[in-house]
Amino acid sequence: MGAWLNGRLTRIVVLLVALESAAMIALQYRQHVNYGTYGYDVGLYDQATWLLGRGPFSSPFLTSRGLPVWGHHVNPILIALSPLTRLGAGVMWFSAMQTILVFLGAVPVAWLTRSKTGSAEAGLAMAVVYLLYPANIFFAFFYFHPEVLAPLPMLLMAWFAHRRRFVPMWLSAVLALACREEVSIAIGGFGVVLLVEALRNRDCRLALHALAVAAVSGAWFIICARIIIPGALGGQPFYLGTFYGRYGDSYGEIAKNLLTDPALSRGLISSGHRSTFLVDLFAPLGFLPLLGVPVLMSAGPLLGLLMSSNEHSQSIQSHYPAILIAGIFLGAIEAVRWLWPRRVGRVALTVMVALSVGTSILRSPAPWSVNRIWKTAEPRRDVFDRAIRMIPDDASVSAMGNLVPHLSHRSAIYQFPNPIVRWFYGEFALGDPAGTEAPQARNGSSVDWILVERGALGRFESDFDLLIQDRTFEVVFEEDGVMLARRVAGGR
Question: Are 451 and 391 in contact (CB under 8 A)?
């Protein structure tokens, strides 16, 4: 069995990847066409990629977020993907591609486990654990986010480093760094992990590469955080104050306060949702990653997520944990390697498989789970479709969140009530305790069309009605609560 499986391991894992990807992409498609995707962040990144396809170095502006593309995050990978938008690629194409690439991470996981244990069975088991890992499955549910593309090149980077193939290792590292600026923190951690291995094996060549990896990743983070983003914004990264403002006003002040204020440190894991997040990350792997040195690769990004005031950062039901995946699985593989000759490795791996099956059923959005969170029907789908077809391709639009991803291939697409009323826009975020994002009335002069659902307008219903009453806009389509308004010629 071992010899037979050894020669077919990669093909079997790729087959499992194909089957799971097909199942998840089918659900993605049904959810998207039934208006179950949203402007933040699917429509946002779809517009960003489309804009970059028209001019990647012209500082395009994300009207769906109110920030320059390079002032939002630094995702050079979008430049490579952007030409595809000229061929019609959009939300579903990029989301399907992301799903396949995420699950393909099971291949280097299988290779590394087999190489470190000498067992193809162990490699297959670890690949199954990876494919069943709830966070990986949730990445498909949340559609396209460029940082979710990072785990595969990060795992390939580890595989090539293991094989001492440094050129493809560096190419993989560069590809991962291109996904988002925070990835550099994890890559820097990988440099530390490599250095530990180099010192343990007295491998000078590996040590030099480890130091170079740490230095390059650190330099890239500084360039992004201190030059590119501030250069586009005219100030510090927007998330510094929004997510970490309670720790300080700068990177240095944040680090100082975190190290010197015990109350801040205790708060990182004291809240219930943070504790749940940690359990969700490590329980499917029996907490074994904590035994492996490579988990240090995820230590920095994990600290950043725990510090964030955005609760979505502390949930596997989001894109944020993507940067952690490689370090967590490399730690698990190292733990299995250490346990394998001690006759408890098979037991540990069996427990991990059982835990992964259980958590994928209970905690993931997989088709076989008990969670029914996919939107697979929309009674007003035909109404939405007809309203959207009435909007010219080059028109500027303000639309409800679940309509934005269907309108995002244009220069100006706002998520209503923006820009009529400023809300979750620019450097402001929902739930700001200081109230600095209080709505500011605007006339929406940059918008030609507004598409909304009457029942979902909430507190902004009066703002929409005022635009109609003062004849700034006129309703040209109304059916089943869906309203499409066009700017009146000569309207203010």
Answer: yes
Residue 3: burial class (beta carbons within 10 Å; 0-12, 13-18, 19+): exposed
Q: What is the pLDDT of residues 453-487, one digit of tens each?
A: 999 999 999 999 999 999 999 999 999 999 999 99
Q: 105 — phi, psi (to 5°)?
A: -60, -20
The reported pTM is 0.93
Angle between helices 2-33 and 120-132 (to 10 degrees): 10
Q: What is the pLDDT of residue 432?
A: 43
Burial 197-213 (b: 16+ CB within 10 A, else e): bbeeeeeeebbebbeeb
Distances (CA, A) of 325 to 128, 186, 202, 241: 15, 10, 28, 26
Handedness of CA 115, 139, 254, 263 (dihedral sign): negative
Tens of pLDDT, residue by residue over 393-438, are 999 999 999 999 999 999 999 999 999 888 888 876 544 433 344 4
Reply yes or no on whether the pLDDT at 452 is more than 90.
yes
Classify residue 344 by its DSSP letter: -
429, 40 Cβ separation under 8 angstroms: no
Burial pattern 34-71, b for ≥16 Cβ within 10 A else e, equals: bbbbbbebbbbbbbbbbbbbeebeeebbbbbbbbbbbb
Residue 172, SS3 per DSSP: helix
Query: Could you say which DSSP state residue 379 is in?
Result: T
Q: Which of 73, 69, 53 is nearest to 61 (CA)?
A: 69
- Other beta carbons within 10 angstroms of residue 135's beta carbon come to 26
**Rounded to whole angstroms, how far apart are CA atoms 158 and 420?**
49
Return all residues near 322 (Cβ < 8 A) that are at least 6 apart.
135, 139, 145, 147, 148, 150, 151
Whole-number pLDDT of residue 441: 40
Pairing of strands 482-487, 449-453: antiparallel
Please state, in angstroms and as integers, the Cα–Cα distance from residue 361 to each residue in 20, 82, 89, 369, 372, following that order. Answer: 14, 36, 32, 4, 11
Mean pLDDT of 254-258: 74
Residues making up the chain, counted from first to last = 492
Residue 473 sits at φ, ψ, to 5 deg, of -125, 155
CA 121 to chain centre: 31
Sheet holding 413-415, edge to edge: 413-415, 397-399, 449-453, 482-487, 473-479
467 token code pair: 């635009």
HEC per residue, 190-257:
HHHHHHHHHHHHCCHHHHHHHHHHHHHHHHHHHHHHHHHHHHHHCCCCHHHHHHHCCCCCCHHHHHHH
